[in-house]
């Protein structure tokens, strides 16, 4: 059951790299940045401190995703009401799904604001 943890580790690594880049470049970021986009471009603006809010929110989501990945026995029941052939397979599938979802969430959170930092 190492693969979900390795995939989840990728999202943690991406967030750590994003926080390091944000820390180094924060002083050079414009004071007002776009925080909302529509079909016509940026239509909502806010303080550059919003970038830290995004990182914090991403961290909280990763903490929520980590619970069933690292503590599956506490998060999933073993009553056998799964569509998969065994409870272990069902739990592994859910862990892989959550770990891939954590990478996608981190890429979206970090990727959307990366152009404002660099």
From TrEMBL:
Question: Where are the bilayer-spanning segments?
Answer: 6-29, 50-71, 96-114
Q: Which UniProt keywords apply?
A: Membrane, Transmembrane, Transmembrane helix
Lineage, top-rank taxon, reads Bacteria
This chain belongs to the protein called DUF1648 domain-containing protein
Species this chain originates from? Chryseobacterium takakiae
